Amino acid sequence: MTEQHDQAGKLVVLERFRQVNRSFPKTKEIMEWRGSGRKVFGWLCTYVPEEIMHAAGILPVRIVGYSREVDLDDGNAYMYVNNCSFARSCLQMGLRGEYDFLDGVVGGSTCDGARRLFDLWRSYIKTPFHHVVTVPRKYTERAHALYYQEVLDFKSHLEEHLNTKITDEALYKSVQLYNESRGLLGKLYELRQREKPPISGAETMEVSNASFRMPKEMFNDWLKELLNELKSSDRFYSGRVRLMLVGSVLTNAEFVRFIEEQGGLVVTDELCTSTRYWGDLVTFEGTNSPLEAISRRYLNNFPCARMFPSEERFNRIVKAALGFKVDGVISETIRYCVPYAHDLPLLEKRLGEHGIPMLALDVEYGTSGSGQIKTRVQAFIEMVEARRR
Amino acid sequence: MNSTGSGNKLGSVIRACRLIRRMLRADPEARQSQFMYYQMLEDYFTRVLRAKEEDGFVVGHTVFFPAEIIYAMGLVPMHTETATWTMALFTGDCSDILASGARLGMAQEICTPHRGLTGAFASGALPHPEVMLWSNMVCDNTAKSGELIMEVCNCPGFFLDRPFKRSQHEIAYLVSELEDMVHFLEERSGKKMDWDKLSEIVARMDRQIELVRQINELRKNVPTPFRPQGFLELLTVDYLFPGQPEALEYLETLYRELNEAVKVGKGAVKQERFRLMTLFIPPMYLMGFLDRISREYGAVSVIEPFFTFWGEGRLDPSHPLESVARKSYMIPEMRMYGPLDDRALGAIVNCAEEYKIDGAIYYADVGCRHSCATIKLFKDTLADIGVPMLVVDCDVVDATVTSEEEVSEKLQQFFELLEDR
């Protein structure tokens, strides 16, 4: 059981983040933005550069599905059950009008689920603007050149659609804002390196979920407040074992809370909704062009399992696992999330070479943990704890 | 993870091909092209096994990979997914290789052709290649299959990154990727690329595509002259023999045969009642049954937009590598890989109209996510022009997913529905 010692335990700002998450997609913040005559775009994958949209005066929000277990009747009907439940969940929300305020949707050719979600969204949900970015699967200079061209094409398409010019100055400002956000999230994660971190894995996910669901300017201000609150708080968590969470897209903080309730403290992750979202900064090494810097960052960022070679992903997972002194790794793979499923045998081997055990869970997007998962997590924590003794 | 990889299942495939040729000899209705087809299959897999025995250089590659390059370098290609499919088709059972894949830790989510493929390498059912080439054509399974195969077979590999769309800069990227792949193969095999030979192969491939287009024109006739499930031959020839002389010989023979049949008004079945569009691959282990029921009901597949209906364009032998890159955007299946826009959907509508389709059958492979996600979209698209579509849940390799009885019942109901219309 994770322990918590604190006067009140409650963090005021965290409650605000929770409210954003509870009311998403039609949050007060998004509706106010739109109410002021400004546009809101949805993006489908972390390989879509948000800064381009932000620099055009758009509020980019991430399209995600229901962060809880729900029947996906419409999602199944339109997408068939053998597609990942994340894609089906997103589509169902779109079909049911929950994203009807969006002025545009931007996707990437990242995985089968994402590209089909984009195809069906375009065919059945009449969002006014659509764009799909080709994302190479390699990191070579040639791949960077192709991706840069794709980012440039996206910018041009957006300029044409909005009848506006996205200036370098606006891009610089957006980069600064997004980098600030990444840096602040990095500070939050630094706190989790402590033996007894002041924030749990579930709470951290609540913060990171809000980061792509509200204006970045506001998010950064709130996160600064949260960091100050944490600094002055004497709350801390500890668990029987320290864990890292890796795998498919995950937005349900209750799933993390469930693991922590079994005694495993989640201290870091490799999730596209958390570390892989904010992990790397946009840097201006070797270029003055903000577009080039943005493009390079997005392709070089902590990779998704879709990228080649997989060693890059494995190396970064191992590095994070060692840096955060984790005792074990839990991999959650959404059923039919093929890129992550393919990586499991090799990832388990790589972690094993560093003495880090891994539990591979097959889950549905939105799950908060159930009987079978509970049994497996408990057994894994016991095994890891026994190894540590 | 390693095993010797003796290739014992390929031996079964070769023996089955021989047996089928003997049976065809006893069939007065059998066509010369059918003999040729099974001879080609036998030769293809024999070449793989012989190369392993004689210290040859076998290049494993995934589906839609530009095997023209492998042939031009005098290396021996082994089309990995086709090897899995043919094992299912000719041996009727893939449970052992699927179990072998599971033992490696391959999850159920991974489609059976790829689970079976890696399992086949691990169990020795397939011989280990000297190098493994793979690409992201056409799905995540192909894109992610190579690294584990490299580990299992203890061989080096090359991943070919094929861009999603078809802009000029994306085609240029693919050409550069192909150049890198040629260098990789030269380094690993010690053989140099024969550019003249590649040009010859590209010229033949261009002719090959033209022949398929001409054969399709003949298939427009009522009654259609090509066998109910004959399109699988076209598909396999395209997969295994791109730009090869035997492919041209086969297609020219087939064209002549079909042309003769058209001239005398002879259809593929005694009484053609239903002209069908086939979407995706039927279960391999039910091919015999599907052939029988098609003949019984007079139902013939006359077009397959994602298998035999090539996209527009010609190949230019004077620019062989660029042609190979451009071909990857003309491959029928690639309509499914790029953005599924009006152009891709328009091809289905055009096919339905030009080939006078009565109905479409969608073989929904439970392991194929990117295709199954199109079921409703295709059904709605065809419904707009009054063409009904049947969905048959199945698995291309795993016989435990659906039974002959289930498929039979569905098909009969569908044929009755078509009859009532």
Word description of this protein:
The complex is a heterodimer of chains A (389) and B (421). With 389 residues, chain A is of the alpha/beta class. Chain A contains 16 helices and ten strands. In chain A, helix 11 links the parallel strand 7 and strand 8. The longest helix of chain A is centred in the middle third of the chain and has 24 residues, at 168-191. The mean pLDDT of chain A is 96. Chain B has two domains: 8-193, Rossmann fold; 196-420, 3-Layer(aba) Sandwich (Rossmann fold), CATH 3.40.50. Chain B is 56% helix and 10% strand. Chain B contains 18 helices and eight strands. In chain B, the strands form two sheets. Chain B has a four-stranded parallel β-sheet with strand order 2-1-3-4, with helices on both faces. Chain B has a four-stranded parallel β-sheet with strand order 6-5-7-8, sandwiched between helices. In chain B, helix 1 crosses helix 4 (80-91) and helix 2 (32-53) packs antiparallel against helix 11. The longest helix of chain B has 25 residues, at 195-219. Chain B starts with 7 loop residues before the first helix and ends with a helix. The model of chain B has no long low-confidence stretch (mean pLDDT 94). The interface between A and B is large, with 51 and 44 residues.
